[in-house]
């Protein structure tokens, strides 16, 4: 069974600094997709970044980038130039595809606080 | 282009009552997913539907829970005879197609069972 582990329950960073959130996953599949979602206090789940496992190039979206290590099954999120609005829960997710169905398997999340 | 719309945002029910949660997917999306989030936890998959069809309900409790996505109108998640353990945030997501496509989430419905 696929599992997603986020080993950092909470992290904090100073505004304008860089922070990296860890995520590891377990799967026997070769082709799959990985995601990072942000959940601010408003509770809205916002897609931050998406990675296709068959692509070696790490995905980037403005200040957000990932370090995807397929062999190590690691998918960390780097936030550069942190802003106060980045304060939120961050969830790593693995997309499981089976028998015509797709579902996201989420980690337990990392609570990130950006301090002024 | 409105996003995924869920209502109500908050729903309070007494034990034994029924809860109906509604979800309108993004325009053009025909794939709908329901997830449940307990406090301090990540989201857990419940059910995946396409128009008029349940594709995967492997995450849904066998009793009291049901979901539909009719040809016309929103998707409905229905919980009968609610119990305190059903208290959670219920999220709906939609996608244009499958194949690792991005899922767009609604703001969720917070169900509180008294």
What is the gist of this entry?
Chain A has 116 residues and is mainly beta.
Q: Notable features of this structure?
A:
heterodimer, A: 116 residues, mainly beta, six-stranded mixed β-sheet, four-stranded antiparallel β-sheet, 12 strands, B: 114 residues, 11 strands
Question: What global shape of chain B is seen?
Answer: globular
Amount of helix of chain A:
under 10%
Q: What is the strand content of chain A? A: over 45%
What is the string of SSEs of chain A from the N terminus onward?
A: EEEEEEEEEEEE
What does the main sheet of chain B amount to?
7 strands, mixed
- Shape verdict of chain A: globular
* Individual helix count of chain B: 0
| Helix residue percentage of chain B | under 10%
Specify the structural class of chain A: mainly beta
The average pLDDT value of chain B, as a whole number, equals 93
Number of strands of chain A: 12
Question: Low-confidence runs of chain B (pLDDT<50, min 5 residues)?
Answer: none
Percent range for β-strand residues of chain B: over 45%
End-to-end Cα distance of chain A, whole Å, is 41 Å
Number of strands of chain B: 11
Question: What can you tell me about this protein's structure?
Answer:
The complex is a heterodimer of chains A (116) and B (114). Chain A is mainly β and 116 residues long. Chain A is built from no helices and twelve strands. Chain A has strands at 3-5, 10-14, 19-21, 24-26, 33-39, 46-52, 60-61, 64-69, 74-79, 88-98, 101-106, 110-115. In chain A, the strands form three sheets. In chain A, strands 2, 5, 6, 10, 11 and 12 form a six-stranded mixed sheet that branches. In chain A, strands 3-9-8-7 form a four-stranded antiparallel sheet, with no helix packed on it. Chain A has a two-stranded antiparallel ribbon with strand order 1-4. The model of chain A has no long low-confidence stretch (mean pLDDT 93). Chain B is mainly β. Chain B is built from no helices and eleven strands. Chain B has strands at 5-7, 10-13, 19-24, 31-37, 43-50, 53-56, 65-68, 75-79, 88-95, 104-105, 109-113. In chain B, a hairpin with a 5-residue loop joins strand 4 (31-37) and strand 5. At the A-B interface, strand 5, strand 6, strand 10 and strand 11 of A face strand 5, strand 9 and strand 10 of B.
């Amino acid at each position: 069974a696929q599992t997603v582990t986020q080993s950092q329950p909470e992290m904090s960073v100073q505004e304008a600094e860089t922070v990296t959130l860890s995520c590891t996953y377990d799967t026997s599949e070769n082709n799959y997709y990985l995601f990072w979602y942000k959940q601010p206090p408003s509770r809205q789940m916002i897609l931050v970044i998406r990675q296709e496992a068959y692509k070696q190039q790490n995905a980037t979206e403005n200040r957000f980038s990932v370090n995807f290590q397929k062999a190590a099954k690691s998918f960390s999120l780097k936030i550069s130039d942190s802003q106060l609005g980045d304060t939120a829960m961050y969830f790593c997710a693995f997309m499981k595809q089976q028998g015509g169905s797709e579902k996201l398997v989420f980690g337990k999340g990392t609570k990130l606080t950006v301090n002024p | 282009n409105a996003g995924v719309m869920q209502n109500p945002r908050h729903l309070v029910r007494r034990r034994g009552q029924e809860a109906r949660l509604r979800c309108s997917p993004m325009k053009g999306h025909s794939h709908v997913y329901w997830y449940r989030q307990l406090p301090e936890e990540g989201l857990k998959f419940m059910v995946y539907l396409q128009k008029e069809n349940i594709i995967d309900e492997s995450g849904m409790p066998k009793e009291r829970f049901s979901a539909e996505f009719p040809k016309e109108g929103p998707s409905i998640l229905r919980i009968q005879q609610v119990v305190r353990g059903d208290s959670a945030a219920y999220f709906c997501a939609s996608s244009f197609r499958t194949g690792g496509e991005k899922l767009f989430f609604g703001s969720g419905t917070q169900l509180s069972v008294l």
